[in-house]
Amino acid sequence: MTSTLESTPEADRTVREVGIAIIGSGFAGLGMAVTLTQRGESDFVVLERAGDVGGTWRDNTYPGAACDVQSNLYSFSFAPNPDWPRSYSEQPEIQAYLRGIADRFDVRRHCVFDADVTSARWDDDARRWLVTTTAGEFRARVLVSAAGALADPTYPDIRGLDSFAGTVMHSARWDHEHDLGGERVAVIGTGASAIQVVPAIQPVVDSVTVYQRTPAWVVPRTDHPVKPAMRRLYRFVPGLQRAVRAMLYLFREFLVIGMAKNRRFLKPVGKLARAHLHRQVRDPKLRKALTPDYTIGCKRILISNDYFPAVAAPNAELVTAGIAEVRPHSIVATDGVERPTDTIVLATGFHVTDLPIAEKICGRDGRTLAGVWSEGMVSNRSATVAGFPNLFLLVGPNVGVGHTSMVYMIESQVAYVDDALRTMDAEGLAVLETTTEAQDAYRALIAEKSKGTVWLAGGCASWYLDKHGHNTTLWPDFTFRFRKLTKKLDRENYVGVPAGAPSEHSEVAA
Ligand code: NAP
After folding, report:
1. pTM of the model
2. What is the pLDDT of residue 2?
3. Domain 7-53+107-152+351-507 has CATH 3.50.50.60
């Protein structure tokens, strides 16, 4: 099998044969690519819709963008970085890290940039995925979707928003050409993105109005620069950085006890958040408006030292009345107050429970993944779906985490997919497909683990739950349990069709 990677116009008219097509080059796509490269697999492409690697860390360049997990943990275990300048890195450092990974592990030569996947169809006769992109067509034995869950922004359905005459930008699609200096800016949303945008822009704008639908629990951010001596130590004693990473990991896993097992253990975290608010906001009315009425942890716990002071600043206003309508030069709240506005920042999140990539992937019987998931995302071990042979999902259903590093989960998933690929090679399988029984069992496991957790019973609405109130996004347990569950391919839950065997998949059991 050959893979022609030159992106010449002539090549674009031909269908390129590849062993594995990976969609996306964020942490997940890069992690998969590095793993393949490390074991000598070179017959793969990484289809990237943008012009560079990085995924969500390439796209989220809004002022103040930073990670709320310490970099010693929020990085690949196989590529520690002794040079992180701060304990919690900002977006440019994380993006530089990912670019460095692509270079160091020679992944770029597999990347096809500006290749937006418009459809991926399983051809049961050919036993191949036919992947159509804006940079040409690919026929792949295996498709790995690493398109990400925080990839496609959600634009709210607010009356009149289209009629706004000023600038509207989503936090994930920041317009750096637009100068906010001296403007009256409205920020819609109070999630992880908003609480970073607001303090970053508040000092330069004329006024900032924060439209809050639901207040967030916010705890202090224990961020600090990493001293050069410490960086040297990390460089020469890598075991030390590994030990710090392990400690951070364990500390964060303790939160799962409170979130998923016994709510009592969340009490100290709630106290910390209340004390933080009390210390930073003196005005009792504003304090009340910023106090959530749901259990801490139900939504993502946010970390910030400068959000509350920014909202309490003289040029800031917190609006808790809903938005009635947007007019060409103003926003009208449901209490009737109209506020003149120059720019609207939509910090309104992403399509997480309705992943847009799912609309583009078509399985054996012609149904899209989105169609199969219309009543909620289902999978076996968060990685495979019945009816979608040779398809593997990274950062798909029930793999999200609110308390720790997503990179840990991604590495668990990559190991699982890699074991599946090795199994296919070892057994000479043309097709590997999970069973509906395995999928049902996994759904039941997730439902059982989710019962009584703060995400389901914490009294809030969040993107962790789908429209039916089911947890289809989060892994509702300790992350080491996910790692154990996905350490090896659960071969008994798959049907495999050897190369050369008849196409009727259902007749060939494992
Ligand atoms: P988000 O958590 O989904 O927050 C969206 C915000 O917009 C919420 O406050 C939501 O209110 C509000 N909203 C949505 N639609 C609205 C509407 N029609 N009218 C008024 N308000 C509306 O999105 P995000 O802040 O972009 O964060 C998404 C995820 O990205 C995070 O959970 C996190 O996993 C990740 N992230 C991480 C970092 C970090 O590491 N520091 C930074 C940014 C993002 P409700 O709460 O009422 O729904």
Report:
1. 0.95
2. 40
3. yes
